[in-house]
Amino acid sequence: YAHPVAVRDEEDRPAFRRGSEKARHLAEAELRNVFTCFVSPLVDYNLSGDDSKDQTLFNLLQQVMTATTRELDKVHGHLIQFLLDDKGLVLICTFGLRGSTFPNMIEKRAVPFVFSIQASLEELGVQCRIGSTFGKTYCGVVGGLKRHEFTVLGPSVNLAARLMASPDNPGILVDKDVTHLSSQIFFRPLAPVQAKGYDDLVPIFEPIEIENDGKWGLVKKNFVGRTNEIKMAIQSAKDMVQEGVACRTGAACRMLFVQADSGTGKSSFLVHATDRIKAIMRRVKTLHRRTFVVTNVSRENDSRIPFSLFRSIFRDVLSQTQADDEDSLVLSELSRFSRSAPESSDSSTLSSTSSFVSTMSTDAARFRYICKELDAPPEFMDVVGRKLLGLKEKNPNELTSSGKAPDLQKIVDFIADAFIRSTKHLYLVLLCLDDVHFLDEMSWKVVQAIFERGKKVLMLLGSRPPVSNPLSIDSTFWDNLQGKYCDEGRFSQLNLGPLSESEVRTLTAAALGQSVDDIDETFIQSTMSTSGGIPHHLSCVLDAIKRNHLTRRITNGKIGLRSSLSGESNFASVNELQLSRIDALDFNVRNVLQLCAVMGMEFELIDAALAYSEMFANVKDQIRQNEASASLRLALDAAVEEGILEQSYIITEERNAEEGDIGGRSMGDVSISLKRRQAHPFYLNNRRIRFTHDSWRQTVLNVLLDERKQEIHHHVAASLERDLENDVALNEDDTFDRRMIVFRHWKLSGNFDKASLMALSMGSQMMWFGFNSQAILLFEDVLSTLTNAKIADEDAEQHFGISQPVLDSLTTGELEA
Fold it and tell me: What does DSSP assign to residue 253?
């Protein structure tokens, strides 16, 4: 193995060859900031003397080497060494040397490589320990004139080795400098260590890989049922891959539409079906590397945000162009060839590879590349990129715009074509979308275009029954799905119902840690009667039984319920059961749950904290704010412990213009860097909080007085609006999603003045794009605060659904709005 930098130096420096070797090595040596990664695969590397066993070891070591070079090729890093020393079997990888220096190198390449190499080795059945650091190092040749090597030396390199070999290493450890250059990755701080070359204790951190940022659900341990439905999803994926390989152009898109009532397990089904398909693809390495899974959960306000789906997923889609685009693959192969056959390689390969990847290193750069590939008009960079998808350019003044929005159908076609272009080299694209009954009209149009024109895309869509939750989908397309596309085998619809009695028995046994035969029949009948076989309700019942120790051995030796039924076990409905558990909580916890329920199904910790402070007039100074924050966090922790809420790590959006990123975010998921937010104690430790199920939220809302709901909505709206006003650097395009949240809370607070002014502002912005139907929906939302207003005189005269007393109560400013 020859290091790429050393190979290039040998071929590109003919002038130095006439001088001494020592002089040439000195001239080529550098001091550079380098990301150093030590990887220790935990394998028994001792030779046994048995040829068969030793050959198995050699094969495994070769697989480790192949996996490492493969993952490095994807992100264009370098392998320094693969050796056996006093630390055991060690691989040393770097980023930052000539040919592997890129914008946002640590965040976009180095740390993702650390996660990917760990996962790749685990696929081989090999655990590993990794230590990574970033710092100034000597980069050059060391050794004698006849025997030497290209390497990196310095305190940060020593620290990386120390972290790798640490007995407290949970799998991956990094230093503080890596965390400072990775604002979009979460790091868990650990106890500092003493290291050679450092005067003080060195802070160390464990990076946490966030696979779904808390929006997509997690695989449940005791998932029962839906066997045939999951088999159908898996078979669809297999058929598409096989058909695509056979015809070489890719199989036509397919859609599996899953509808179910609340609590029936729709979301869990989608999560498990997705996970099973990913597991199938993982078994074939070539398929695993060419399979792309993108997930999204729509929220209630998304129906009012045009292209809300693609504001959320477009960044992930564009990322496929960076590493796996056909041009990148060709250059990757050339790079690999140059290392294996340096005597015949083109000296420009390394630099051309670096140049290409550098130009594709940001979301903005990839978007420009796609625009060029699709021959999009210049104004698309501004209108589609910046205004609709949140693109931030280093030099926004350079963006050209005609001052007029492009035709809506052209925007739909462009986004669909960009999706198809970015993923055309893949074998399978799994597009998993939950709660599509909240999906906006324009997102549906793009989904339709992808379905009709794209290839190799399997869509798994989950929704409440369209009969009670109408979809914003084109009626003709919906008819075609249920008609000709169904006949062609491209569309299937699943209706999830309650679990069968045998499935209830299996889930009950798993939850109690018993065998199926150990559960008494009366136990099953009781849980079946209370839950109705609805998976979520059944989980609540079983959880209550376990929490209250309501099981016992009965006379036949099986597990049954206590003979004296009381407390939670005697409730007629799951709603009563949930309400009793909420009532048993501390007053402050119940108060916080009220705030959470009003804020929505999911929200950010810092938003809840700001609203919580707003609710108490005496929380003004920093000390009181810290006390309120601590009280809030304790209450949230109690709700999480109770299983009412769940939390996940999120990344604070703190991007500067030089990164040029597409702000991929949905209605409730944007976290803009604002002054008041930055000063808050939770700013650096933000979380996404969500109810474990919508039934918990509805249970809290059902017992709240309307006046109390409006009061809390007012506090939430005021706190969020104040944040928007504090940051004058953000324009309307940057804050549209967040202003929609503020609008929703002002509307539900009954403040017609505030809601109408915001609706007029956002509505005019929508109408500039031609989103007239969405603007009308927004205006109707405002008017609903008047039509739904309660009055004493039910027989009062009405005008277009608004009573005369309500109109008389409006101020001049409100009437003008």
Answer: P
> What distance in Å separates the CA atoms of residue 37 and residue 18, rounded to the nearest whole number?
36
- Phi, psi (5° rounding) for residue 127? -80, 160
User: Residue 333, exposed/middle/buried by CB under 10 A (0-12, 13-18, 19+)?
Assistant: exposed
Q: How would you label 565-595 residue by residue, b for 16+ Cβ within 10 Å and e otherwise?
A: eeebbebeebeebbbebbeebeeebbbbbbb
First to last CA, the chain: 72
pTM for the model stands at 0.71
Residues 95 and 533: their CA atoms lie apart, in Å, by 54
Distance from C-alpha of 507 to C-alpha of 297, rounded to nearest angstrom? 26
Give the DSSP H or E segment for 781: helix 772-787
The Cα 491–Cα 255 span in angstroms is: 5
Helix (H), strand (E) counts: the chain:
34, 20
Contacts with 318 (C-beta within 8 Å, 6 or more apart), sequence order: 363, 366, 367, 370, 418, 422, 662
Which residue in 572, 611, 610 sits closest to 594, CA to CA? 611
Q: What pLDDT, on a 0 to 100 scale, did the predictor assign at position 760? A: 85
Rounded Cα–Cα distance for residues 47 and 50 (Å): 8
Distance CA(633)–CA(428), nearest Å, equals 42
* Token reading at 333: 């192969």
HSE-up of residue 638 (Cα within 13 Å, Cβ side)? 18
Helix (H, G, I), strand (E, B) or coil at 183: coil
Cβ(309)–Cβ(433) under 8 Å?
A: yes
- Over residues 534-591, the pLDDT tens digits come to 998 888 888 888 887 888 888 888 988 875 444 444 555 778 888 888 998 999 999 9
The DSSP annotation for 387-412 comes to: IIT-B--SSGGG----SSPPPHHHHH
Per DSSP, the three-state class of 420 is: helix
Strand intervals (E) in 144-239: 148-153, 172-175, 186-193, 202-208
For residue 669, report the phi and psi dihedrals to the nearest 5 degrees. -115, 0
Tokens of 406: 């492009």
The total of other beta-carbon atoms located within 10 Å of residue 719's CB is 21
Tokens of 572: 């007629």
φ/ψ of 39, rounded to 5, equals -120, 125
CA distances from 328 to 74, 245, 516 (A): 9, 21, 53
